[in-house]
Write a structure and sequence with these properties.
Two copies of one chain form a homodimer. The first copy, chain A, is mainly alpha-helical and 133 residues long. Chain A is globular and about 55 Å long. The relative contact order of chain A is 0.08. At the A-B interface, helix 1, helix 2, helix 5 and helix 6 of A face helix 1, helix 2, helix 5 and helix 6 of B. Chain A binds a DNA duplex (30 and 30 nucleotides) through helix 4.
Chain lengths: 133, 133
DNA sequence: CAATAATGATCCATATAAAGATCATAATAT
DNA sequence: ATATTATGATCTTTATATGGATCATTATTG
């Protein structure tokens, strides 16, 4: 029943468009530092991939992502899942935090210890110091 | 015209569901290394935020993200935009690559130099070595 | 202890990232 | 030089991450 699908699709589009009038899109802005950190990570990945003589498709397959996403990652696109980026880094051998597995685990424990000493919640000074003058 | 919206919504749901029968969802799996790297980063962010006495809401606002997303970031959720994570890290003062802005820029240049020396594309050995026996 | 604020968790709607397909171009091996 | 393959770029569809609201719980201050 092709006609059904077409009609339903028309209503679907209608529904989608009625709210599309004001996209309310989220235009996110990034600091220079973030952009450069991401760019560097992407380039390190690309260098590592080539040094290991792996094609983009091979790495993408191993990481379980599309080649297109890998391209964006290597370009330092900030709108990528951090999980995908990290996974690719691992595959091509780029170390995160400059640490191996064991070191990573140790750092986690240290950080958790530190965290346990800090207050569970941050309390804003409820009242201004009552500036008497 | 509330009725219109309801009807249209019904068709919308119908349309969405006809394809939902086989979600074909992408269940991504992550390596232990990726999971721990992300967890560490999240915890470092949380520690830094508390040390600076910033509430979750304040940091979220400054980063232009929701408090919910910040929560996920601090928990090391791998399904977050890397841009959001990096931005938060910058705000609370967690250094990426253990480098300041200048160092970052220098590393980028070094990496690009390295990249320029590598072949533009990786070529798989087109033919197996013709295993004659 | 009481009051209040921060955090954690969950839900829904929607904006958007990702997959997949396709095309053009560039780069490598023979 | 030529054939072949990798890469880059763009488009559409679909899956999903995010924002925003709400509620319960926990912490902190006074």
């Amino acid at each position: 029943m092709v006609v059904h699908r077409i009609i339903i699709k028309a209503f679907y589009d209608l529904y989608m468009n009625q709210n599309k009038l004001m996209p309310k899109s989220i235009i996110r802005t990034y600091s220079r530092y973030s952009r450069e950190a991401s760019l560097l990570l992407g380039e390190l990945i690309r260098v590592a991939r080539k040094e290991r003589k792996l094609t983009a498709q091979e790495v993408a397959d191993r990481a379980g992502i599309s080649r297109g996403l890998l391209q964006r990652i290597e370009k330092g696109d900030l709108k990528c899942e951090i999980g995908a980026v990290f996974e690719v880094a691992v595959i091509v051998g780029v170390k995160l935090f400059d640490a191996d597995e064991t070191t990573l685990t140790r750092h986690i424990r240290q950080t958790e210890d530190k965290l346990s000493l800090l207050p569970k919640s941050v309390r804003r000074k409820s009242k201004v110091v009552h500036d008497d003058f």
